[in-house]
Specification:
Elements lengths: L2 H12 L6 H19 L7 H12 L4 H13 L7 E8 L5 E8 L2 H14 L3 E2 L9 E10 L3 H10 L4 E5 L2 E6 L4 H10 L6 E8 L3 E3 L1 H15 L4 E6 L1 E3 L1 H7 L1
Parallel strand pairs: 8-10
Antiparallel strand pairs: 1-2, 1-3, 2-9, 4-6, 4-7, 5-6
Helix pairs in contact: 2-3, 2-4
Length: 246
């Protein structure tokens, strides 16, 4: 499983996503605005916007808030011109970290990202230092399903793989196949939790002890930044170790 999708599961197990709904909404609104600005305000004709809106709905964002974000983005209004940025670096234990962000101030964002790395035992690296370890993939996340039945349906729908971690199943696809696979799974009766384009790591770095604890703190600090949309990292923490950290 990619470091990102496993980290998403780790966050849920650890309870790191709690009362931060306002911060989550801020990130989702930025993504909706950017998607609408780049590809237009039609959900049907803009795959990136469609995924962003679906994610916002899964987080219970009000319909009016979603619509205002689309209108602001497609209309080019104030506050909608966020720039896409990517940062790369290393965390405790040599973990590779790839960060995707949306910002209206590069100087502020890189300063905040560098501070988070320094505070938690990591190093912000040069462009290209870890990106070769990640590949763009689609992923559909499901919970509480029969793994064998899901595997059969997913492969029949054209998915590349299905991976299970602590009761959460991630269906991995080519980016271009994501929406088709998701639709096929839902047609087959599976309730999907989320779907997104992500970056999948080619290797995993197992962490224990202080390195595991520091890496979790670093990932949380990075994700807590308003300008950071996604944190992808190739670390693996065993369930018993995670229970100790939590």
């Amino acid at each position: 499983m990619s470091g990102h999708s496993k980290w998403a599961t780790i966050r849920r197990k650890k309870g790191a996503i709690d009362a931060k709904r306002g911060k989550i909404f801020t990130k989702l609104i930025r993504e909706i605005q950017t998607a609408a600005r780049m590809g237009g305000g039609s959900v049907d004709g803009n795959p990136r916007l469609r995924l962003a809106v679906e994610k916002a709905r899964s987080e219970n964002m009000p319909k009016d808030t979603i619509q205002r974000a689309i209108q602001k983005g497609s209309g080019g209004g104030d506050g909608s011109n966020f720039e896409e940025v990517v940062y790369e670096g290393y965390g405790p234990g040599g973990v590779a970290i790839l960060i995707e962000g949306l910002t209206d101030n590069r100087t502020r964002t890189v300063g905040e990202v560098r501070h988070a790395f320094s505070k938690h035992g990591g190093n912000l690296g040069a462009q290209g230092c870890v990106s070769h370890l990640f590949e763009k993939k689609g992923q559909v996340v499901l919970e509480g399903v029969n793994g064998d039945a899901l595997m059969e349906a997913a492969l029949e729908a054209g998915a590349d793989d299905v991976v299970e971690y602590e009761g959460t199943f991630t269906v991995v696809t080519r980016p271009s196949d994501l929406e088709g696979v998701k639709a096929a799974l839902e047609k087959a009766g599976f309730a999907t939790k989320s779907a997104e384009i992500t970056m999948q790591a080619s290797t995993q770095v197992p962490l224990t002890g202080d390195a595991a604890e520091s890496m979790v703190k670093l990932a949380e600090a990075l994700e807590d930044l308003d300008d950071v949309q996604n944190v992808h990292a190739n670390f693996d923490i065993a369930a018993e170790e995670l229970a100790r950290i939590a």
